[in-house]
Amino acid sequence: MEKACIDINQLINVFSNYEGAVYQSDKLNCFYVDFGGKFARYNCLSLQKLKKVVEEIDIEALLLNTHRADFELVTFNGCEHVYLLNALEIIALKDLLHGTFTMFNLNHIVNDCLYRLVY
Amino acid sequence: MKDLMRIKCLISEDIETLLNQQIKKEAHSSSLYLSMASWCNQNGYDFSSDYFTKQSEEERMHQLKLFKYVLDMGGNAISPEVTGIKTDFAGFREVFEDALEAEIAITQSFKNLASRCLKEQDFVTMEFLNWFLKEQREEEYKARRALELFEVIGEEGTGRWEIDKHVNDITYSED
Ligand SMILES: [Fe+2]
Ligand SMILES: [Fe+2]
After folding, report:
1. Which of A49, A79, B59, B142 lies deepest, with the highest CB count within 10 Å?
2. Dihedral of the CA atoms A52, A53, A55, A61 (nearest 10)?
3. In Å, how far are A61, A102, B73, B112 from B125, measured between CA atoms?
4. What distance in Å separates the CA atoms of residue B53 and residue B109, rounded to the nearest whole number?
């Protein structure tokens, strides 16, 4: 599915790091998160939810707590995808989503300057 | 590349978070006022009990006004969890002291929200907030005036009975 999907919908790479990438489809108004062996589709709302859920994971607490495994189940209500990630992967996902939303903000500024504020 | 997040929602994530915090604070105020109404009623201050019940309804209205705005702008409005409401007060005066303190906290919170709007140049939300900034003038004024009754009338003798009777007379007019 991965490569085919990228070609057909002309996905734009929003941000990538060493563990994964996030793509945007202007045609379908959605995003694809390529991470943890999954190529998962998200809309605006669910991507924001994913970011919130991942941001809230306390890496330090996860590593210091000896009564549980160093894995975390990442999902949320209404999300079709489930990730089982270790601490390093969570750090990578945090970084990926942080970078992605930074690029969204940058793109917002670029759109303002190039199209919306020109007269 | 399309600006999908902006297409979906007028307000930024930061503003949305602050507005949701404000929704929670208004819900907290509403519950706190209801708690004060209960205490006043049980201690024989019927007029003050009515006063705080009305205040509670107003705070609920504030909460819903913010809630609607977040949704109207395409954001995610969160129904808040309200916990830790004070139910016992040391005395009649303390109820009014707490009420003023709560209103001051709300004013400060709105000022903080407004400064964030200006920083982001979110003039749309800023304009929406003006209603609340103006409302806080009245809210603080009323709470302060109520507390001043304790100085003017005094708590001795029938003082508290007298204060209770006059709480509902406090009105604010701009002119
Ligand atoms: Fe309020
Ligand atoms: Fe208030």
Report:
1. B59
2. 150
3. 37, 22, 9, 13
4. 23
Task: Give CATH for domain B4-167.
Answer: 1.20.1260.10
Rounded mean pLDDT, A106-111: 94
Say which of B3, B9, B76 has its CB closest to residue A107: B3
pLDDT, position B174: 84
At residue A69, the pLDDT reads 76
CA of B55 to the centre of ligand 2 (A): 7
The reply to whether the predicted model has a pTM over 0.80 is: yes
- A3-116: CATH, from 2.50.20, 1.10.10, 2.30.31, 3.20.20: 2.30.31
Q: What's the CA-to-centroid distance between B126 and ligand 2, angstroms?
A: 19
Which of B106, B84, B99, B100 has the alpha carbon at shortest distance from B40?
B99
